[in-house]
Amino acid sequence: MKLTFFFPILLLLPLLASCSEKQVYIVYFGEHNGEKEVNEIEETHHSYLSVVKESEVEARESLLYSYKHNINGFSALLTPEEASKLSKLEGVASVFRSRPRKYSLQTTRSWEFVGLLGDDGRAKKNVRGERDVIRKAKFGKDIIVGLLDTGNNSNFI
After folding, report:
1. What is the pLDDT of residue 105?
2. Comparing C-alpha atoms, which of 70, 73, 79, 78 is closest to residue 93?
């Protein structure tokens, strides 16, 4: 009786294993030539997925995003085998696994960088000789400092 209970589970193991190895891949076709409408581009992406997926429904469900404006491509949930098959199809420039990165703090010396700390590592005194600048600034709470790199180089000006 115990064997009959586990037999259906054993049949599902390969299916479960294939689900766990699916990852997000980016499929890139190159630049747009401007001949297709946005909905036609998305249909093209679905047609490529239909080649490697079991059904049209699975192909539509695996599509995560269609890049339709600046580049021509899509991201989808694929197995390594499906990604390999897609990479061999005509019209596909490249297929690569998405490796998202987390943003991390790029400096640990912000207080020194903006000149709020003295040589002794303590807050600099203001003009009245008080060390409350950092406290009044709420220690930088709710302040976001960003850098926008425009790509312009002052050497070319």
Report:
1. 58
2. 73
20-97 has which fold?
Alpha-Beta Plaits (3.30.70)
* pTM, entire model: 0.53
pLDDT tens, 51-77? 999 999 999 999 999 988 778 999 999
Number of other CB atoms surrounding residue 157 within 10 Å: 5
- CA gap 66, 74 in Å, rounded: 4
Residue intervals of the chain classified under CATH 3.30.70.80 are: 20-97
Asked if 8 contacts 69 with a C-beta cutoff of 8 angstroms, the reply is no
Q: What is the dihedral of CA 94, 95, 100, 105, to 10 degrees?
A: -20
CB atoms within 10 A of CB 60: 13
Q: Which of 48, 71, 70 is nearest to 62 (CA)?
A: 48
Q: Which two tokens stand for residue 55?
A: 């059904």
Is pLDDT at 27 greater than 90 in this prediction? yes
